Amino acid sequence: MNPRAIRIAAQGGPDVMKLESISLPEPAAGEALVRQTVAGINYLDVYHRCGIYPLPLPTGIGSEAAGVVERVGAGVTEVEPGDRVAYVHNVPGAYASHRVMPAARLVKLPDHVSEETAGAVMLKGMTVEYLLNRTYPVRPGDFVLFWAAAGGVGLLAGRWGKHLGARMIGVAGGADKCRLAREYGYDDVIDRTREDVAERVKAITGGKGVPVVYDSVGKASFEASLASLRPRGYFVSFGTTTGAPPPVEAATLQKRGSLYFTRPTLFTYISTRDELLASAGALFDLLDRGALTVRIGARYPLAEAARAHGDLEAGRTVGSSLLIP
Ligand SMILES: NC(=O)c1ccc[n+]([C@@H]2O[C@H](COP(=O)([O-])OP(=O)(O)OC[C@H]3O[C@@H](n4cnc5c(N)ncnc54)[C@H](OP(=O)(O)O)[C@@H]3O)[C@@H](O)[C@H]2O)c1
Predict the structure, then answer these.
(1) What is the count of structural domains for the chain?
(2) 198 lines ligand 1 (CB under 6 A)
(3) Would you say the CB of residue 148 lies under 6 angstroms from ligand 1?
(4) What is the CATH number of the domain that holds 154?
(5) Pick from 309, 318, 290, 267: which is nearest to 122 by CA?
(6) Mutate-to-test residue for ligand 1 from 132, 217, 219, 279, highest number of ligand atoms within 8 A of CB
(7) 299-312: per-residue pLDDT in tens?
(8) Residue 24 and residue 71 share a domain
């Protein structure tokens, strides 16, 4: 198969993504050529495509993929030809049949993790790992409020939080998504389309509020998240699906009960190879033990990346979506 990739010449709507033939350089020192069998679709890719995050153009798009190493450059010790691998990379370009990658960013897949599963969970699962283990370390019995609970990150967070012994409160849009989130570990799910989130949180927590809210919705959920926290709670703002939240003044955190506010991103939590392998290792371990199950909501041919983005942005997807090169 001729190498192909989705590329954009301008940032904009889904139709800026075009499937193109590409020529592949030989892997240089420290690099590996991966024949990709699956690429994960993430909201981050939407930010890259539409221009919320400016990029040098033209560019590839996509942040994670899995496949098989075909060739390696000089000095590569991390992987060898034939290894099944996956990666998350902060240089867009994962929507492709082949890719030359820095070998140090590749993670070898254990036998029990298929490439398809890896494509569905590497970015989203490592995100849940750092959010629940390292941003605010969730303890048994903690109430945890998690927005977009039926989404790709959200379903993994439901199961992971349950594994940690937390009381998971999810927010989702509509009855079907609420039902699905409950199946994936959430004790309570609030339907944002017909319920007041902060009021329900207060009722569920006996008026106290939650010690942590994980909010990826941004602008539309900011006030409800603030109002759901107990004093000295953690506001973890990790996405901007509906646009950026307003600037947060120190005085607001004081007045609303000595709160903490953080805006984390996966790449600073897996910046070293040790952190990357530890985070992926924790994820693979939970998959192996059956504590995490993966919901692949949709698979699209590589050529239909535009349709995939349209579905994700319209909130039509549940769980993880994949592109198949
Ligand atoms: N900082 C990081 O390290 C990091 C890493 C990975 C992902 N993220 C962020 O996590 C979020 C989820 O990513 P994903 O790829 O798994 O996408 P996703 O959750 O599968 O899709 C986004 C979801 O947002 C919800 N949503 C849309 N409009 C909304 C609104 N007006 N109010 C409330 N919810 C709304 C929808 O769910 P409902 O209709 O059910 O509400 C939609 O399904 C994104 O914001 C992404 O950028 C951040």
Answers:
(1) 2
(2) no
(3) yes
(4) 3.40.50.720
(5) 267
(6) 217
(7) 999 999 999 999 99
(8) yes
